[in-house]
Amino acid sequence: MKSEQAYHAAKEQHHSPGSSAWTEGVRAGLPIAVGYIPIAIAFGLLAKSSGLPNYISVLMSLLIFAGASQFVGANLLALGTAYGEILLTTFILNLRHFLMTASLSQRLRQTTSGWRALLAFGITDETFTVAALRKERKLEKGFLLGLNLTAFASWNAGTWVGVFLATGLPPSLQASMGIALYAMFIGLLIPSVRSSRAVFVVALAAVSVHSMLHWLPWFDGLSTGWSIIIATIMAAALGAVVFPEEKREEAHT
């Protein structure tokens, strides 16, 4: 038994060094890349239809690399929302990344803080899921780098295609791409709502609060950005209070 354990420990210690780990990461990231490209194209089309300059759209994918935040940011910029509100909204949307990167850092082999920062930048919901489900106790930085770069490259390539594809579309069709934002979120929301009562209640609460802030005359002076921020915080707080047991169960599965 001890010799078998020693064998598996030695095998894990030398698992996928260097280019082998990189190749595994790229291979694991290919399904993510296939899914990212059409969504990134939709973002490029939406950004163009919103009147954003091409370089802004491209820089958003290069420097932000967060799909939901980019869609929301482009929409808020088109509405003329104040920059501070956009920053706060996207910060709240991306708070989950603190938890995801902290979780993966516990499984990453000893490496420098610079490498950790670089790898943290490339973590998304999809790359985190792939990395978190790996069977190895320790993850190689080469694997995460290959995984993240594959997703990053596909997202940016899709953005470029969307931005420059939009230049050849008629203005009426460009304007209609604004619905891509809502279609994306509905597509993400419906499967979760069907499988989780907590998600349904939180989503319904967010819609209700935002509708109240929009339609009630007492909140006429409240901007769209602050309405989204308030609705997000209140709905998340309600979910944390009403469904603490469900969250604990999900955390242990």
TrEMBL record:
**The protein, known as:** Autotransporter
* Family, similarity comment: Belongs to the AzlC family.
Q: Which GO terms describe its biological process?
A: L-valine transmembrane transport
Comp. bias intervals (Basic and acidic residues): 1-15
Q: What is the lineage of its organism?
A: Bacteria, Bacillati, Bacillota, Bacilli, Bacillales
Query: Membrane-spanning residues where?
Result: 28-47, 54-72, 78-99, 143-166, 172-191, 198-218, 224-243
Task: Read off the InterPro entries from this record.
Answer: Brnchd-chn_aa_trnsp_permease
GO annotations of cellular component type: plasma membrane
**Where is the protein localized?**
Cell membrane
What is the protein's species of origin? Aneurinibacillus danicus
Q: What keywords tag this UniProt record?
A: Cell membrane, Membrane, Transmembrane, Transmembrane helix, Transport
- Report if keyword Transmembrane helix is assigned: yes
Q: Where is this region: Disordered?
A: 1-20
- Give membrane topology per the record: Multi-pass membrane protein
